[in-house]
Amino acid sequence: MFDFLIDNPTDFSEAVQQLETTQVGSKVTFYNQVDDIKDFDFVVICVDESRGNPDNNTSIDFEHIKYAFYELQLGNWEISILDLGVIKPGNEISDTFYALRQVVNFALEHHTLPIILGGSQDILYSQYRAYDGVKYMINIANIDFKFDLGDSNATLNHESYLSHMVVNKPYNLFNYANIGYQTFYNTQEEIHLLDKMFFEAYRLGDIVNDIKIVEPVLRDADIAALDVRCIESQSVLQDEMQPNGFNNREICGLSRYAGLSDKVSSFGIYELQYLHSQTSKKLLGQILWYFVEGTQYRLKEIADVNNPNFIKYQVPVDNETLIFYESQVSRRWWIEIPSNLNNVNNKLKQHTLLPCDKENYLSACNQELPERWLKAKQKNEF
Questions:
Q1: What is the spatial distance between Cα 131 and Cα 381, in angstroms, rounded to a whole number?
Q2: Helices within 114-211 (DSSP H only)
Q3: β-strands 223-227, 138-143: how paired?
Q4: Among 189, 227, 365, 374, which residue carries the largest CB count within 10 Å?
């Protein structure tokens, strides 16, 4: 069906098939063993493309990374995984992007969740474009130490893909949230520009102090992405990684939040060419495990003002009346975004309720407007 795919090496697939029934690998089927790829919960896609990062375009050890995941013990899961092998590099980077877009688009249309393991993070642009024609207005949550805004007039690369998402048609990017940026790797101009576009950015230090602050952001995302360079060097035992970053427990916690999100429909992990230690590959296996674990505890909770399990709270703040909802099932919170009834092209028709947390409600009670609510409202009126 996809002639641009390279099968997994025989010795790798045989090793996976010899794993015990209690291990993740027992739930894995390989692409060359099936005629139809529609009836799986997950597809694992490796993208051997790093030309978008001229600083490091070395080969990626996909087999050891995947085996580190497949050899782990299953949770209380009922899952099926299809391993598609590797998308080989095209003659041009755009050829590789086209191939990935075809696979991800097909998976999305058949309600299968693609897990993308790739090289340079400009591949995220292709992951995003796969939603064209599938869903309008996309939210991206990107766990990364940099914004990667770059120059939209320059060639698309691993440090400029965000600007291309913003300026290239069709305009389907509703919200972009950076999770874990480090100020000294981002210019003040970039920080201010992100704010002017009403996008979100959460500093590494704030998340480390309270990781729960980004749960609503990941709950609201359609696409979750991770640049592995945001992991601290100590956690992967590699000196060339960042001295500051998320530790092993924090990055697994963020991955689980992404999996728990009822909305996240694809997960991409990028810049894998930087990982070469055995510890780093084992950590990647555990990051994948926590993501899948999260998906098994999705509540499929309908975020609707008429949900009978929601408790409604009204909080007057200045000239606004903020309306919060608390789920009696999950104890999660949402805040209502006012519709602009005079705008027939209202971008927020599908974003009436915005995920938030109890702290936002308590802050509103103290007469503070939540920043997420303000930005969503401003985007809706823009």
A1: 24
A2: 123-129, 161-167, 188-196, 204-209
A3: parallel
A4: 227
The span from the CA of 97 to the CA of 53, in Å, is 14
Edge-first strand order for the sheet with 353-356 is 310-317, 320-327, 333-336, 353-356
H or E element in which residue 353 lies: strand 353-356
- How far is the C-alpha of 68 from the C-alpha of 49, rounded, in Å? 21
Cis peptide before 170 (omega within 30 of 0): yes
User: Residue 341: its pLDDT value, please?
Assistant: 40
Report percent pLDDT > 70 for the chain. Answer: 96
Does the pTM of the predicted model rise above 0.70?
Answer: yes
Give Cα separations from 71 to 19, 286, 371 (angstroms).
7, 10, 42
Asked if pLDDT for residue 351 goes beyond 50, the answer is: no
Which residues have a Cβ under 8 Å from the Cβ of 85 and sit 6 or more positions away? 5, 6, 7, 8, 30, 31, 32, 46
Widest distance between CA atoms in the chain: 67
For tokens 């009978």, what's the residue? 308
